[in-house]
Amino acid sequence: MLSITNLVKRYGKQNAVDDITFELGGGEVVGLLGPNGAGKSTTMKCIVGLLRKTSGEIIIGGHDHLSVAAKRLFSYIPETPYVYDLLTVREHLQFIAQAYDVKDWKGKAQDLLDLYELDDKADKLGRDLSKGMRQKVSICCALLPDPQVLFFDEPMIGLDPKAIKNTRQVFRDLKNQGKTILVSTHLIDSVESIADRIMILKSGKIIGNDTIANLKTQMMQSEASTLEDLFLELTKDEGN
Ligand SMILES: Nc1ncnc2c1ncn2[C@@H]1O[C@H](COP(=O)(O)OP(=O)(O)OP(=O)(O)O)[C@@H](O)[C@H]1O
To answer: Signal peptide span per the entry (predicted)?
Structure first.
């Protein structure tokens, strides 16, 4: 469903994404882990076309990632939520529904507003929303068109505990519906229970790409007592 070949994104002399190649099969849920500055957001932004890649190929559902056909297939939840200042919460959902031609959108939008406890904020303007509320609106907008592929960049940051719990359930539901999901995070425990596979990015390179089951086997054979410890072990700098 997603195929990335030799992706490079250079800022000046620095390769923020340094020749990475990977695939996500249809229905696969993959966690993209890495320390600060590893290149997770840059990879995501290149995939969704917000940043121009330096080189490489990105194919979504058989289409070049910049084509309209590819864009119809996916939603992206950015690390920093962007909302329109002068649209209300409900108008955001209406806008997405009209842009993506979502049938019977009102009922679906209401379910999302209820799930994320935004119903009483539905008439608030974007500019008056807190960071967490913006994040919730961003997630609702991404879910409304019912895309096949979802790219979540640090989705839990800024959410309250209830919204985190709901988002975990949303992940499980999406997985059961056979959606393909790439979710970037610093926190392995936020994806441990739903991811089929974990990719570890460090200094723009993929240094680990394995199933949760295999990582757990590796964990037992090492000094690590949790996957978090194993992740820290794999990503630690030489000399530390
Ligand atoms: N606009 C930019 N100009 C120059 N360098 C950048 C720019 N954006 C990111 N970088 C650099 O690219 C590298 C990768 O950054 P990126 O934001 O993709 O990392 P990340 O893994 O998402 O980090 P975090 O977990 O902190 O969000 C970092 O070294 C960062 O300093």
So the answer is: none
